[in-house]
Amino acid sequence: MLKSYLDSHPDENGYFGKFGGAFLPPPLIEPFAQITKEYQKLKNDPEFIEELKYVRKHYQGRPTPISYAKNLTKHCGGAKIFLKREDLNHSGAHKLNHCMAEVMLAKKLGKTKVIAETGAGQHGVALATAAAYFGLECEIHMGEVDIIKEHPNVVRMKILGANVIPATHGLRTLKEAVDSAFQAYVPQADTALFCIGSVVGPHPFPLMVRDFQSIVGHEAKEQFMEMENSLPDYVVACMGGGSNAMGIFAGFIDDENVALTGVEPMGRGENLGDHAASLTYGEEGVMHGFNSIMLKDSDGEPAPVYSIGSGIDYPSVGPEQAYLKEIGRTSVGLCNDEEAVDAFYKLSQFEGIIPALETAHAIGYAMKLAKTLSPDKTILINLSGRGDKDIDFIVENYPIPNAKF
Prior knowledge:
By secondary structure, the protein is α/β, with parallel strands linked by helices. Helix content is 43%, strand content 18%. The strands form four sheets. It has a six-stranded mixed β-sheet, with helices on both faces. It has a four-stranded parallel β-sheet with strand order 7-6-5-8, with helices on both faces.
């Protein structure tokens, strides 16, 4: 019997084709080997699985539902639009799916502290939530620019007991937060676990985060079949590192008739530094301990990037996302700032759902796609997070439009 895609990827060294691996400084080789060994044991441990199921059902509020966006569908014309409601997951985004499991892993490893980076703050809030639940210390690194922009999430992290450390170098956004967190982790590896916030980083994190996020896709597949008696024609998700996209893609990856599209941020335009469309404009390279596709400057270093969505302005992408695009299993869509803001307001005013700005990129692309399709086609969007964190920034910079129905 042939193995499913998820069972056969990555290989034992963490490679998806040529992408992935673990490019580590010597002090981290042994800690990451320990993490890999423990995860391989735990992923099939009935006690661990049952505890995670309990947490998801009785604490996170899973399963999250699928909603038919009837008003947005009517507005766009064409294909029917559906939303997988990860905004209803506790803490407001998909991030808690892997954070609860990563903190459980940290406890199994005997760690007393978790360290992480965050961009939009959703991963930081989720990890602070998980750390509070399981009784571990929590340290979150966040770019100074994002600390100002995503102030509500910074307050939430602090209320939850996390120590928020600003990244003050470079562009002071997500890449710099990752740099800062890695540097802080090295001397603490014996007592702390670096809980990477996406399907990026050295092996085994792209595998682990995908596995923990795959609950989104597995739920969605069953729910969509129940609602429509068929699979969706298209599954769409926003993409920076790619965790929410990989989570929902996992449920449909063996279904060849379901088109999978990851939507990258086009920001202000095509010039380097004005977008964060890594798969569209990048090339192969190693950053933050893994080989993937990344945006580079003229010196071959990670290029400056930009997006209105703080959680997706990253100059690389998860190695599995790079691999899936290379083999033609996924496609890449684009959505710029203007389209994302329009989608943010449209979903809010047509459906009563305020999405995260990152998620709004998937919605913006899906709105364009729906108009090109016939009414018998269906699009499922991973609504990866809610927009509470973004409302102050949005209303200060983009006037609220009059509702149009």
